[in-house]
Automatic annotation (TrEMBL):
It comes from Micromonospora harpali. It is a multi-pass membrane protein. The chain crosses the membrane at residues 27-48, 68-90, 142-165, 171-191, 290-312. Signal peptide: none annotated. Residues 351-594 form the ABC transporter domain. This is ABC transporter ATP-binding protein. One of its GO terms (molecular function) is ATP binding. Residues 600-625 are annotated as: Disordered. Pfam families: ABC_membrane, ABC_tran. The keyword Transmembrane applies. Keywords: ATP-binding, Membrane, Nucleotide-binding, Transmembrane, Transmembrane helix. Residues 29-316 form the ABC transmembrane type-1 domain.
Amino acid sequence: MTSRTSRDVLRRGLSVLGRAIREQPRIFAVAVSGSVLFGGLVIASAYVVGAVVGDVVVPAIARGSVGVAALALAAGALFGISVLRVVGIFGRRLGAGYMQFRLQAAYRRQVTRRYLELPLSWHQRNATGTLLSNANSDVEAAWYPIAPLPFAVGTVVMLVGAIASLFVTDWALALVGLAVFPALFALNVIYSRRMAPRQARAQRLRAEVSGIAHESFDGALVVKTMGREAQETARFAARAGELRDALISVGRLRGVFDPMLETLPSLGTLAVLVVGAFRLRQGAITVTDLVSVAFLFTVLAFPVRAIGWVLAELPRSVAGWDRVRRVLDATGEMPYGDVTLDPADPTPATLAFADVGFAYEPAEAHLPGAEVLGEVTFTVPAGRTVALVGPTGSGKSTIAALAVRLVDPHTGTVSLDGVDVRRLTAASLAGTAALVAQVPFVFDDTVRANIALDRPGVTDDDVWAALRLAEADGFVAALPEGLDTMVGERGTSLSGGQRQRLTLARALAGRPRLLVLDDATSAVDPRVEAAILAGLRAPAAGGPAASILVVAYRRATIALADEVIYLEQGRVIARGTHAELLATVPGYADLVTAYEQAEADGEQQPRPYDEVAPLTSGLEVEVDR
Ligand SMILES: Nc1ncnc2c1ncn2[C@@H]1O[C@H](COP(=O)(O)OP(=O)(O)OP(=O)(O)O)[C@@H](O)[C@H]1O
Ligand SMILES: [Mg+2]
């Protein structure tokens, strides 16, 4: 590492510390006051000890008797200083702790809030493990040096005070101090410079190890069923080994520098005794002076280390902060507009795609993004049901995501009730359109919480109504604790079809005016699927009046739609009723018939509910790695 980059780390590290101080100035002031009080008392205690030895002990030895009054005074002074020192330590520790943990909590909140604001395209580019380590170890690392910072600041004040007091005592002893203290400081700086690249590397590896672990646990199903335990273990072991080596190299450097940092003050004390003995003989100083200064060197050694702690943690802090900043400064945010749609409007919404084109961002920036959709134009008129049919990879999920504005089109517009979705407020969007995704996501919470999601005004009655529409009231009523049943992480205690119906009920409970079902009932048996859709289409049954865009495969389901849009490779190939398409579009007939054939052959789930959905990668369980 060149000295320029290490200077750069020092500069950036100090600016991170500056930010911390600006954010918590009062607590920092308390902590530094405690530390300065402590520092002043350390110097004072050295002189009191000197006075006790020079003015009480030495005369007592000479006389053969102890002056009780002088002894009591000395003891009282030392006791008083100790008590005040405790106050200083208490103030410093409490302040530093408050400051560190407050900053950690604040930034953890900021990072996680930012995750939720960032668009899907950003999440698709960033691994979940990295996000976890950004919010955990990176935030922690960024504020590590805060713990010793007040101590270090107090120590700098103390060192200046110590050298000044040395000059007052004796210039020769002061010169020893001027040689030792700056050397100690310099050694600390060299130490932290050496440490910088090692700490940065360790911090990066920590994130990578956590990323791999997260991925293997998340994909436990595949790892087990495909017998990939050994390979996964090896992949993890390799990176864990690198982390171990990085940490060992950190430890080795510590092993070299720590003893040097210990030794230097002892050498200083030795120098003080040698020089001091001469000066004593010359009559330039008293025994009191010599003992005070020697004691000062001994007690200063420890606090000076605090400066080293801060400097040594700076690189790690900068590395952590850079990674936190990357999240906080991430662009690609979806700006919302300010047009609102009436939330109480009971009529279904109209969805229109006009000439929509879309391409996913390439995995690597230099690759071109392949077009996934082109010139897609269609309308879901108010209150109507439109089915989206197409072979796998034809862009159905992409259209579903565009319809609820998880992503924005590259060309053309998507509009709700004639308003470009980009002009709507976030609340209007969420209140108007609901997506039931291809991969159901269930929170580790109760059935009720999963459906109501804390939305105001969603009562238990609404929850049950939504469950009825999703044909889920039967199984929920049969659960041991009904709505209060905990469903386990990602809904592991539920079957695939139950999970799908729970997420459908969640969408329905918000009374959306447009419902987008992306293959949302694939794990439910065909009769129930048809019953669900029939119920949704008939508001008389008590359901919300919604327009429906449904990605479907089964003939019975498709037949319920008012119109079918047939896609191939991101283009609308044909549109019409099911019967029309069946008669006129060979590709469509093949697809629908093949699917039916597969189901009839007993392939219960040709499209398992937890198959990889490319669109949701990075957000959901991605089992098929
Ligand atoms: N996050 C992504 N990054 C890059 N390409 C993607 C991403 N998600 C999807 N794609 C690509 O976009 C195309 C359309 O995907 P989409 O998920 O919309 O298809 P689909 O019709 O829903 O397929 P399926 O029936 O299998 O669910 C596919 O070629 C897919 O490989
Ligand atoms: Mg899909």
